[in-house]
C-alpha cells in the first residue's frame, strides 16, 4: 500500500480508528462474557460431561457456535448504532 | 484455575492469549491456528486427547466469524468448499478413531507429538523455501506479485491428470480438474484435523495453492470455510468420545474473536509470497514447543 498518497493515509487512519473502536467494544463484551462463563458454566458442564456425553457434545457445539455468532452480531449492531463504517 | 473436565490447572488468561494469537492467524493466514494452539496447550500440560478435541472446539466458533468476513470479501469458492467437505468429514472421523485406538494403547502423547513435530517441520521448511523462491522470481522477472507461485508447474501437472469425473471451479479460475484430486485434498486434511486437532489449514492452504492451483486469497477464504465444517464435526465426534473441555474452548475463543479482527485487517498490508514467508515461521514454533514437552516431559505452568 502506498502511504505517500494522502487518500491512502486517510484510508489507513479510518481502518485503524474503526478497528480500535471495534476492539474496545469486543474487549468489554468478552470480559463480561468471560466472567459469566467461568462462574456459571463450569459446574454444569462438568456434571454433564460425567453423566451424558452426547448432550454434552451437542450443548458444547451450540455454545461455541452461539458465542462466535453472538460476539460478531453484537459488535456489528453497536457499530451500526454508532454509525461507524465497518472494516470489510 | 482448574478445568475439571480435562483435569488440569491452567491460567485462563493464558488460554485467552492462545486464542488471541490463533485468532490473528486465522484472519491473516486463513488457517485455524491449531498447529500452534495445540502445541501450546500440550506444553502447559493439557492431555493430548483433550488438546485434539478442545482445539477443534475453539476453532469452530472462530472460523465461523473469519469465514463470514472472507465471504464478504469474495474470497470463498463455495462450490470447491462444499465438495471438499464430504471427504473432509470422512477423514476427520477416521482421525478421531485413530486417537481412540492410541488412547487404549497408552502411546498417544509420543505418537501424536512426534507426528506433530515431523509435519510442522516439513510444512515450515517447504513454505519458507517456496516463498523465497517466489520472491526471487518477482525481483528477477518482474512478475506480478499476486501471480507469483514458486511451484506453478505442480498445479499444471495436477490439472493434466484426466481421471473422470472432471470438474470446473470458475470462481477459482480452474477450467478442469479431476474430482478425485479435490476429494483427496479434503480427506488428507480431514484426517489431520481429526487426529491432530488442527483445522488442517496449514496443509490444505499449501495444497490448494500449489497442487490445485487456486489464487492465495481464495485459498485463504475457502480454507476458513472448510475449517468451519471440519472443526464443527470434529468437535462433535471428539466430545462424544470424551475428548473436549468445552469451557476451555469457550475461554480460548474469547481471545480468538478479538484476534480474528486484527488478522483480517492485516491481510490488506501483505500479499502473495510475503504472507507465505511469514506463515513458515509459525509451524516451526509449534514443533519446538511439542519437542520441549516430549523431551523433558515437564509441564510449564502459567
Compose a concise summary of this entry.
The complex is a heterodimer of chains A (88) and B (302). With 88 residues, chain A is an all-alpha fold. Chain A is built from 2 helices and no strands.
Describe the structure.
The complex is a heterodimer of chains A (88) and B (302). Chain A has 88 residues and is an all-alpha fold. Chain A has one domain. Chain A has two helices and no strands. In chain A, helix 1 runs antiparallel to helix 2. Chain B has 302 residues and is mostly helical. Chain B has one domain. In chain B, the strands form two sheets. Chain B has a two-stranded antiparallel ribbon. Chain B has a two-stranded antiparallel sheet with strand order 3-4. In chain B, helix 4 runs parallel beside helix 9. The mean pLDDT of chain B is 81. Classes of the chains: A mainly alpha (88), B mainly alpha (302). Chains A and B meet through helix 1 and helix 2 of A and helix 3, helix 9 and helix 10 of B.
Number of structural units classed as domains of chain A: 1
Biggest β-sheet: strands ordered side by side in the sheet of chain B: 1-2
Shape of chain B: globular
Quaternary status: heterodimer
Helical run tally of chain B = 12
Largest β-sheet summary of chain B: 2 strands, antiparallel
Parts with pLDDT < 50 across at least 5 consecutive residues of chain B: none
Q: Profile the largest sheet of chain A.
A: none
Helix coverage percent of residues of chain A?
A: over 70%
Judging from the principal axes of the Cα atoms, what is the shape of chain A?
elongated
- In total, the number of domains of chain B comes to 1
Amino acid at each position: 500500500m502506498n502511504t505517500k498518497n494522502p487518500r491512502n493515509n486517510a484510508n489507513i487512519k479510518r481502518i485503524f480508528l474503526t478497528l480500535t473502536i471495534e476492539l474496545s467494544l469486543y474487549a468489554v463484551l468478552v470480559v463480561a462474557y468471560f466472567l459469566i462463563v467461568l462462574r456459571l458454566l463450569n459446574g454444569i458442564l462438568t456434571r454433564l460431561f460425567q453423566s451424558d456425553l452426547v448432550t454434552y457434545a451437542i450443548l458444547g457445539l451450540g455454545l461455541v457456535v452461539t458465542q462466535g455468532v453472538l460476539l460478531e452480531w453484537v459488535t456489528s449492531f453497536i457499530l451500526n448504532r454508532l454509525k461507524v463504517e465497518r472494516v470489510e | 484455575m482448574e478445568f475439571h473436565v480435562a483435569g488440569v490447572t491452567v491460567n485462563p488468561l493464558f488460554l485467552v492469549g492462545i486464542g488471541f494469537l490463533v485468532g490473528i492467524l486465522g484472519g491473516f493466514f486463513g488457517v485455524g491456528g491449531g498447529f500452534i494452539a495445540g502445541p501450546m496447550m500440550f506444553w502447559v500440560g493439557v492431555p493430548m486427547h483433550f488438546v485434539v478435541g478442545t482445539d477443534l472446539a475453539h476453532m469452530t466458533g472462530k472460523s465461523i466469524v473469519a469465514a463470514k468476513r472472507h465471504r464478504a470479501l469474495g474470497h470463498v469458492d463455495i462450490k470447491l468448499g462444499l465438495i471438499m467437505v464430504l471427504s473432509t468429514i470422512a477423514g476427520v472421523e477416521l482421525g478421531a478413531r485413530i486417537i481412540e485406538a492410541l488412547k487404549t494403547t497408552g502411546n498417544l502423547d509420543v505418537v501424536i507429538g512426534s507426528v506433530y513435530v515431523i509435519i510442522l517441520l516439513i510444512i515450515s521448511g517447504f513454505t519458507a523455501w517456496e516463498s523465497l523462491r517466489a520472491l526471487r522470481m518477482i525481483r528477477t522477472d518482474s512478475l506480478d506479485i499476486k501471480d507469483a507461485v514458486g511451484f506453478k508447474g505442480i498445479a499444471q501437472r495436477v490439472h493434466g491428470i484426466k481421471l473422470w469425473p472432471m470438474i470446473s471451479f470458475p470462481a477459482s479460475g480452474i477450467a478442469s480438474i479431476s474430482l478425485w484430486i479435490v476429494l483427496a485434498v479434503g480427506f488428507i486434511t480431514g484426517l489431520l484435523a481429526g487426529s491432530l486437532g488442527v483445522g488442517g489449514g496449514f496443509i490444505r492452504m499449501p495444497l490448494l495453492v500449489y497442487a490445485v492451483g487456486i489464487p492465495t486469497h481464495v485459498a485463504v477464504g475457502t480454507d476458513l470455510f472448510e475449517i468451519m465444517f471440519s472443526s464443527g464435526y470434529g468437535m462433535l465426534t471428539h466430545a462424544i468420545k470424551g475428548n473436549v473441555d468445552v469451557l476451555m474452548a469457550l475461554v480460548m475463543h474469547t481471545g480468538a474473536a478479538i484476534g480474528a479482527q486484527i488478522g483480517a485487517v492485516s491481510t490488506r498490508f501483505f500479499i502473495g509470497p510475503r504472507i507465505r514467508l511469514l506463515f513458515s515461521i509459525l509451524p516451526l514454533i509449534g514443533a519446538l514447543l511439542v519437542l520441549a514437552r516430549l523431551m523433558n516431559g515437564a509441564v510449564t505452568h502459567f
